[in-house]
Amino acid sequence: MCLPTCPTYDATRRERNSPRGRISLMRSIADGELEMGEEFAAEMSYCLGCLACQSACPAGVDYARLFETARADIEQQGIRDTPSRIFWRTLVLRVLFMRPRLLRWMGRALHLYQKTGLDRLVRRLGLTRLLPADLRRLEPQTPRIESKFSSDLIAAAEEPATHARCRVALLTGCIQDLAFSSINRDTADVLLANGCSVHTQEWQPCCGSLHAHNGELGMAASLARRMIDLIPPGDYDAIITNAGGCGSHLRHYSTLLAGDHRYADRAKEWDRKVKDIHEWLVDIHPRIPTASPFETETSVTYHDSCHLAHGQKVVSQPRAILKLIPGLRYIELPEASWCCGSAGVYSITQPEQSARLQERKIGHIAGTGALIVATSNPGCHLHIVSGLRAAGINVAVEQPVTLLARAYRREKKPSGSIESTYPS
Ligand code: SF4
Ligand code: SF4
After folding, report:
1. How far apart are the first and last CA of the chain?
2. Measuring CA to CA, which of 103, 134, 291, 387 is 20 to 30 A from 269?
3. 61: buried, middle or exposed (CB in 10 Å: 19+, 13-18, 0-12)?
């Protein structure tokens, strides 16, 4: 049943490129019939980790865990190591994404580089040729870094205009914080408009999703501990995330810390409290805005982030939020939960397959005729923006909560609503 849902099987029609094929390879290695080597590593690198097979599996096979463990074993054995790969992995996973201050400092430098037009000059002079091939390919897709980060936009504690009915912690993410801090502000505004007291820690470490998906389970566990220490789950009714990929990892801290007696119980409580923003809003019955986000009726479609739909099973709630907003005409996207090809570092490691999936997604989006495509994961957001730009298609990409926040802001007399600090 999983085969027709698997994008890599669909591309090649080869059993080994399917979930069944990969599980059978893993079993052969576990049984000692096959050696873990380059062939296995290549197969696991070809897998998107989109988890569509997991949603389809009637037996409830936990493909996500198998996949993470296989990638961790490959890394441990150093099968794919080359000096340049070790350098970039160390820089990204061990240095940048372990140190939030350093990551923001790098974000500020990148913002300056983009704002001054130095990036365009470097491209015009052909200096990008000096980059390693993988990074050269990725360079045009570098996200625009926002001028203000989440802590510049969101106070440590914000209270709703009316009596608070719950207390939540807001997770600001890494890429989300650098490239989409305005979405974090929108999320805070929507929570306030729905009577939540919002608490946002200034220096949040990476949630560890990047590490876990890339075979670094030790570092992922240490980041999970730091996160639990910083945001004790017992202090909140919910811990809110607005990035599909992060959320999918964040709600499995208990598996990561199962063997750690100091954290195991808190990790279980943490998992119970982590909620995707759309899921949480539907749980607490969101207030219907009295205004539309736009002057005229606007059509919107929705792309499911794999890790939100398959990893977290949050499918109906973002659609429900979109359908709640006055002035939006919702159009369902064909193959909405088919991976867009972003899949973490997939566009670097598997550029051809990534581009094929991107084109397929863009074709479907264009086919709906919608003026906006909504999605809820920074990876999908950036990948779809770059695909639309390359195809010359004028469709805006937005988070559902951004559209909801915009509708609340346009209300003439907000009732029980927000004093938005969103920059105009
Ligand atoms: S995670 Fe996605 S690409 Fe990998 S086996 Fe499952 S469906 Fe196929
Ligand atoms: S058990 Fe699940 S993953 Fe395995 S073949 Fe059946 S549907 Fe596919």
Report:
1. 49
2. 103
3. middle
Best residue among 3, 6, 10, 15 to mutate for probing ligand 1, ranked by most atoms within 8 Å of CB: 6
Residue type at 337 in one-letter notation = S
Q: How many other C-beta atoms can be found within 10 angstroms of the C-beta atom of residue 364?
A: 18
Taking only the tens place, the pLDDT of each residue in 175-198 is: 889 999 999 999 999 999 999 999
Q: What is the mean pLDDT of residues 60-78?
A: 88
User: Of all protein residues, whose CA lies closest to atom 8 belonging to ligand 1?
Assistant: 6
Stretch 385-404: mean pLDDT: 96
Residues within 6 Å of ligand 1 by CB: 5-8, 19, 22, 47-53, 63
Atom of ligand 1 nearest to the CA of 22: 5
Handedness of CA 401, 233, 314, 361 (dihedral sign): positive
Rama region for 60: left / alpha / beta (φ>0; ψ in -120 to 50; rest)? left
Give me the residues paired with residue 241 across strands. 276
- Give the SS3 label for residue 196: strand
* 153, 174, 194 from 177: Cα distances, Å: 10, 5, 23
| pTM as predicted | 0.90
How far is residue 147's CA from residue 335's CA, in Å, rounded to a whole number?
35
* Tally of residues, the chain: 424
Hey, whose CA ends up nearest to atom 7 of ligand 2?
57
Q: Residue 148: what are its φ and ψ, rounded to 5°?
A: -120, 140
**What is the distance of C-alpha 65 from the center of its chain?**
18
- pLDDT per position as a tens digit, 354-388: 999 999 999 999 999 999 999 999 999 999 999 99
- The rounded Cα 23 to chain-centroid distance in angstroms is 25
Tokens of 6: 């698997």
